[in-house]
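thought: fold this chain, then report.
action: predict
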Amino acid sequence: MFWFVLVVCVVYLLVLLSIAIAWAGIKPCDDQDKSLSVSVVVPFRNEEEHLGVLVASLDRQVYPEFEVVFVNDHSIDNSEALLTGLLSSVSFDYQIVSLGDAAGKKAAVEYGVGLAKGEVILTTDADCVSGQYWIQAMSRPFAYDQVQMVAGPVKLTGKSLFQRWQQMEFSVLIGTGAAGIAWKKPSMANGANLAYRKSVFYEVGGFKGVDTIASGDDELLLMKVCEKHPAGIRFAKSSDALVSTEALDSWSAFRNQRLRWAGKWRYGKRKAAMAGALLVFFFNLSFLLLPVLGLMGILEWWQVLALLAGRFLAELNLVWVLSYFFRQRLSFVALILHQILYPLYAIYFGVAANFGNYWWKGRTYKAPVQ
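observation:
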């Protein structure tokens, strides 16, 4: 037990250091040889409170040729009527379409891709906001013919301690996903900021084969593209490519979100995702066991404290590096709470994802059984 815990803890520290080094080594794509036509696909369901800010940010875009395809996923509020009014004075081309018998985010994205006129598909969520150079920054890597997909950074906002903790944790997830892409071992991306060639979407069969799970319009598609084009995926490490959305404000909403995410990580028994999930589980279990080993006399207390201090410094280093890019104020209170609570949280979701249901956009889904 002693050597197992010690090895796992040391490996965890080395992984965090490796992610920070990989993040630092990602270079932005600063040159652009050609402008490709872009279609922004926005699926929405009951988003009337967010559409105004979204449309305003799209209308500020500095890009020569783009359209926006809004796909209504059976909204039961006033979203579509509100959107029609908001779009009456915009400067970009757009389409507003509604899903027929199909339902869900992947169905909405696939329908939007089918109607899109652009060479490049850029997806975002209805509750996201972007800067004026967003489309330009996300489309720039496609100047290189080998690039098939570009993952972009997503930032969470909010003022409460719970939201600040989510900001910190989410930035680490984005940084980890970027490191995986840099290592040519992609496993994470976010549909709130994801671009790909329309041609590659159809080359890999769209969402066929991964359409039985509610989520996964991002990571499951990422894995399909990676199988066909292992060197064709990039991360847009640019402040211009950043989109932001508000962090969740309740444990219930957060729990449903993470159960949904855990469901897509498990889908299809993806080796990289499963290995990552198991490593996270054992890392956190090992750190929980450290005080127990100290109390049992298996570890000296100075060894326990040294490993815990090493974890704190490694996580602080990674969070510090990422907070600079995401322009987020580092919260030491949130980081300390993370040190105490995250092992329990990670183990809880590792187990809970295998049982029960979760709620998303007014619909209830079952955890997938593999």
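thought: worth noting. The mean pLDDT is 85.
final: tokens above.
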